[in-house]
Amino acid sequence: MPKSTTKDLPLFWALLPIFLLMALLSYNVLMIYHDEATAGANQFALLLMGFVAAMIGLRNKVTFNDMLESVYNNIKTTSGAILILLFVGSLAGTWLIGGVIPTMIYYGLQILNPTVFLAVAVIISAVISLLTGSSWGTTATIGIALIGIGKGLGIHEGMIAGAVISGAYFGDKISPMSDTTNLAAAMANINLFKHIRYMLYTTGPSITIAIVLFIILGFFQDTRGEMQNLEILEGIKNTFNVSAWLLLVPAAVIFLIIKKVEPVVALLAGTILGGIAAVIAQPQVLQAILGLDTLNIHDSYKAVMNAIVSEVSIETNSSILNDLFSSGGMKGMLPTIWLILSAMVFGGIMEAIGALKSISNALLRMAKGDFGVFASTTVTCIFFNGTVSDQYLAIVVPGKMYAEAFKDKGLAPENLSRTLEDSGTVTSVLFPWNTGGAYNAGVLGVATVAYVPFAFFNLISPLMTLAFAAFKIRIRRL
Length: 478
Description:
By secondary structure, the chain is mostly helical. The chain contains 25 helices and two strands. The chain has helices at residues 11-32, 41-59, 64-77, 79-97, 100-111, 114-132, 135-152, 157-174, 179-188, 192-219, 226-239, 248-258, 263-281, 283-290, 297-309, 319-324, 329-332, 334-352, 355-366, 369-387, 393-408, 413-425, 435-444, 448-451, 456-470, and strands spanning 312-313, 326-327.
């Protein structure tokens, strides 16, 4: 709480900006803009409700400077995410013109079929995320390719993104190299591997149910005719020089992430390797982009640079591929960055005026019995993801708030760390304005509202932790 606050903020005033924001965002998405709501309307809604929260803060004697400082601190925490988003845009552009993504789609279409694709996508994403410790790195690399393969097989993009995100966040949660896994263990002050082992009790059933649901969905997918699949494969072959050597580019990026190289550095390396692949393996694509009959070193540089920073589209003889083979580069990530910055403004002001503390205290007062503590922690984590818009804060703040409550109830600290992960880490992708939701929607090119119904693992995890608490399953006591 800022020093200038003279009294606690009443619960009504703390909730008012949130209810108004939910109403305005729902109106934008459901009634007016639909999938295009994040192109600007939702960003302004967040800023407008930030102004409403600021007026409430001024009424409660919070100075404008305190609110600005809170906003500044919030935005500072997203600087890494913003850099990653810019480099993901550049990587997607060079991987497209370099033939990396088309090659992965080409081989993927030959190996996979619609019936098993969704379940396989979950498993592949989980393995990569477990090895790298990064759900974001997984969606930015193998996730982009799986979206292309799934679309080529005729599967709804929301289902594909839901499968990728489910697997990526499962691997992230149980990986000892994951930052959120280490953070949750640190907040509960327990051994990392003890936290991971205890978390498997709820995480294992959650991912199992998710995979079963994706297997069931697979049986309802329409298998594309052989001629149509051949048309897609032929379109890729006629446009790009397909080679297994190109798969070394994503392999190199995954290797760098496994070796704990900074994600920005790994993505920059992937961008450069993709550009080199384009110059060496796909000169005909660079010529087509620029509309030239011949190509020199200056033209090659221009084509690669255009793919890095702005939109690029590659025409083929397949209408399906024409939709797939387009990228917005760094420029395409700007709406997502704009959304994150707007969310940080709203969250920062809400924190500065004491609204988040007021709501959290109200939840803590309602906690009755063991289940009440688990439920309050779960609701608070999800609430912070929807208001502060950052998964790290959704772990840190509830972790600090409820540590004593768990101890007072005689509950071992691993109960707290598991609940923080089950409800804080995984639900960040369910909100379009959260850094997790905005990032994954921007990277995969799938609106959050389209993939949320199919992000089974992320939806099931908080329910699973509540079920374990309600039926007193694997609840360790001091």
